[in-house]
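Sequence design from tokenized structure. All designs in this work follow the same two-part layout: the structure record, then the generated sequence. An example of the structure record is given first.
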């Protein structure tokens, strides 16, 4: 049963979301965690077996819901340092934790510039997700260059953990592959054990009340040697049933290569047969066409001059098929400049090597 404290933190969160403009949310990346996700995040941490208070850190603490969930997880046997840049949210955090009797210190500062200790038992974070410029002066203090604020915050979190300490982070999935995050992955794998992932089936679900379209995951790590198995749980949405599996770390992470991380091992049937996009001479560009924002130029029926719009449903074991009747518009009008820029080359011929997942692309190939 959810505690009164967590429900109070949830009320504070929803009231704050309601009183925050879209611009403010975007400026600070204030996508506050729903209580169900906060509960799941803290359930991924192990018990406190000692008599002492746990020293905890909440980086980008917002209104404090993750700190409240931590206090609940450890029967209030915690002291939480909450670091929050926005002074309005820092005072809401302070008032909320005072009201709930949770021992804490509120640090109203930029987490990337503030001095942060390195003896925390537990670190929790739902950091800001925002590109970080290469010439951002705060890069200099990071161990490796960070393409995004969230990976910079994760590095801070890892540095803040004491040996054996644990951290759960609510982050996008983009760190798991690609060159941009490779240095970060290498740095992280040298320092922590990847203990568990929780993956959501829907991209819109977790932060639905703040309209975030983001593939989000929960990542649990500990400052320890890498454990043999990684626990991977999955649910369609934030309240749904979970499926749980355990896989050897070595089956999920390309240790000899670029440290790409998978959420499940490669199917034995495709092992050795699957080439990377790079090996195929390709590069990926995702999210070219956001279909629900382009409804005015989409069409279910072919008309002269339209281009094919291709989804994962156009690819099956039998090959490439277009159009298909799957409830998705199969054609796009690219006569306007904006849509012309979204056109890409011949996707259909690449069906055997490219998994489009849930994305859609407009193809510039002439209609046969
Ligand atoms: C995604 S929200 C999460 C808030 C809260 N932890 C939660 O889970 O509801 C990220 C928070 O980080 C704060 N933030 C953004 N940039 C920051 C920075 N450089 N230093 C500290 N906090 C920052 C934002 O104001 C926001 O409250």
């Amino acid at each position: 049963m959810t505690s009164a404290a967590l429900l109070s933190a949830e009320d504070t969160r929803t009231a704050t979301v309601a009183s925050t403009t879209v611009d403010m949310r975007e400026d600070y990346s204030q996508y506050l965690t729903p209580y169900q996700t906060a509960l799941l995040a803290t359930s991924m941490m192990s018990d406190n077996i000692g008599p002492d208070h746990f020293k905890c850190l909440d980086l980008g603490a917002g209104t404090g819901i993750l700190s409240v969930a931590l206090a609940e997880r450890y029967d209030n046997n915690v002291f939480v340092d909450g670091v929050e840049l926005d002074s309005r949210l820092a005072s809401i955090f302070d008032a909320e934790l005072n009201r709930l009797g949770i021992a804490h210190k509120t640090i109203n500062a930029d987490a990337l510039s503030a001095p942060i200790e390195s003896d925390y038992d537990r670190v929790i974070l739902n950091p800001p997700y925002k590109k970080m410029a290469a010439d951002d002066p705060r890069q200099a203090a990071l161990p490796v260059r960070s393409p995004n604020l969230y990976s910079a915050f994760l590095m801070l979190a890892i540095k803040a953990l004491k040996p054996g300490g644990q951290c759960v982070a609510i982050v996008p999935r983009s760190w798991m592959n690609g060159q941009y995050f490779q240095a970060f992955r290498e740095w992280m794998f040298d320092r922590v054990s990847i203990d568990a992932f929780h993956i959501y089936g829907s991209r819109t679900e977790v932060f639905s009340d703040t309209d975030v379209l983001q593939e989000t995951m929960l990542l649990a790590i500990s400052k320890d040697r890498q454990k043999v198995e990684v626990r991977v749980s999955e649910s369609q949405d934030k309240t749904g049933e979970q499926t749980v599996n355990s896989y050897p770390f070595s089956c999920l992470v390309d240790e000899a290569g670029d440290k790409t991380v998978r959420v499940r091992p490669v199917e034995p049937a495709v092992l050795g047969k699957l080439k990377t996009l790079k090996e195929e001479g390709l590069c990926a560009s995702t999210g070219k066409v956001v279909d629900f924002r382009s409804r005015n130029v989409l069409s279910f029926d072919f008309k002269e001059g339209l281009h094919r719009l291709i989804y994962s449903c156009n690819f099956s074991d039998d090959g490439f098929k277009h159009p298909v009747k799957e409830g998705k518009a199969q054609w796009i009008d690219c006569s306007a400049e904006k849509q012309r820029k979204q056109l890409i080359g011949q996707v259909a011929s690449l069906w055997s090597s490219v998994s489009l997942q849930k994305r859609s692309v407009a193809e510039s190939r002439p209609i046969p």
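The chain is about 20% helix and 25% strand. We note this feature because it recurs in several other targets discussed in the main text.
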